[in-house]
Amino acid sequence: MFEPKQEYSTDMSLGQDLAPHLPFLRRYARALTGSQSHGDTYVRAALQAIVDAPEDFPRDVDPRLGLYRTFQAIWSSTNDEIENRDAGDTGNEGIAQARLAQVTPRSRQALLLTAMEGFTPEDAGYLIEADPAEIDALVNEALEEIERQTHADVLIIEDEPIIAMDLETIVRDLGHSVNGVAVTRDEAVAQAMAHRPGLVLADIQLADDSSGIDAVKDILAEFSVPVIFITAFPERLLTGERPEPTFLITKPFQRSTVKAAISQALFFDQATVPA
User: Per the record, GO CC terms (predicted)?
Assistant: First the structure.
């Protein structure tokens, strides 16, 4: 439901309208900041802004657009009140660190909004205050940057052969290498230990009822590597209530979505931005 819970009564109908879109805003925020904690903190700040001044929420657009627009306003502006608060408040400190770093330029915002979140150029333009032609130019700029990105060895953890083949094709077309395709937890860990990947693409549910999440936990216990999870039920991993993935792709996926997620995960990894 709409957060923070103790404030629902201020505008219950608005909260109900926004609730279905919150998981996907978390997905965008995490990809934008490269961190679950930073992304979720920004989402909470946006929700608090709506609770504090529901009359300022844009009512002339679709609720999802209004929600993302409010989030973008929080992200794009320097919030002195948040940044100057007590550093002991880890939530506010997270916002300050993510905002001051300014690690995701407008070109990548445009790419994430269109390729990952599925907004039209017109809607993306509304969200970041640009016209559709500028959005197209920004997306092209981001794609050109991706072409210059350092290539990685990728481990694919996926038990459905057709999906694994699709992912392998996308990865190779982006100029990366595939150093293994695993279908179970044990196989994934063994392959990762034998040939340390620079990126992991992991399905949640694997053959023999093992878990891609558990496989990734085992791998991360040995070394650090960026991870993108793939699932048909993204809402289950976008609650903001526990440690959850930073990068998440929804099945069935579009090629552009996978491309944007891979490039953003590697963008943060190569920039050595802490998650």
Answer: DNA-directed RNA polymerase complex
Q: Residue 29: which domain range? A: 5-144
pLDDT given for residue 145 in this prediction: 87
Rounded Cα–Cα distance for residues 240 and 222 (Å): 26
pTM to 2 decimal places: 0.84
In a domain, 40, yes or no: yes
- SS3 state at 252: coil
d(CA 223, CA 205) in angstroms, rounded, equals 22
pLDDT tens figures, 206-241? 988 889 999 999 999 999 999 999 999 998 899 988
User: Nearest CA to 106 among 80, 78, 125?
Assistant: 125
Which residues, in sequence order, are CB contacts of 59 under 8 Å at separation 6+? 66
275 domain residue, yes or no: no
SS3 247: strand
Among the listed residues 269, 271, 254, the one whose alpha carbon sits nearest the alpha carbon of residue 111: 254
Pairwise CA distance, residues 265 & 31, whole Å: 8
